[in-house]
Amino acid sequence: MIAVRWVAxxxxxxxxxxxxxxxxxxxxxxAGLGLAGALALANMGIWIxxxxxxxxxxxxxxxxxxxxxxxxxxxxxxxxxxxxxxxALWAILFILPLEGAIRFGINGAMAAWAASAILYTAxxxxxxxxxxxxxxxxxxxxxxxxxxxxxxxxxLMARNLxxxxxxxxxxxxxxxxxxxxxxxxxxxxxxDV
Length: 193
Hints:
Blueprint: H1 2-18, H2 28-52, H3 56-80, H4 95-131, H5 137-192
Helix pairs in contact: 1-2, 2-3, 3-4, 4-5
């Protein structure tokens, strides 16, 4: 995910600089570049913490922190573009359930989806007041419904992979026992011969 965040920081800065659909409201472009920089700085901090983490508990805490930072910064970036009703930048929120699934399985996928859905809905309600746009509940439910499907698929895939890994681990242990038994049998036979 560290590599993904570096790419995301470059993508965010490029998006801000390349955007031409509507004129930016005052301060939005600077805030977008600031968020891209914040993502890069956060990623550097996560990388440093990752290198220094020595315990499972520390790795878990770092994973929770990293996912929380990703949800917050991605949502903030999407929030900035609330002035443009046709911008598809909201689609970056679909990455969050995937990250949650990779880190924490189905629970992580669903938590990341729920957080991003709540923040996105708040963004749409805020845009009504701020920019005078009509509230489009069907757009919110459609977009976040797709996010829910992504969260479920990614979470179930992660759960199945974890189960398969556990089964494979058990099979390898059993194979190791069988191999040790075979080795003892061959050694005994060789000794007797």
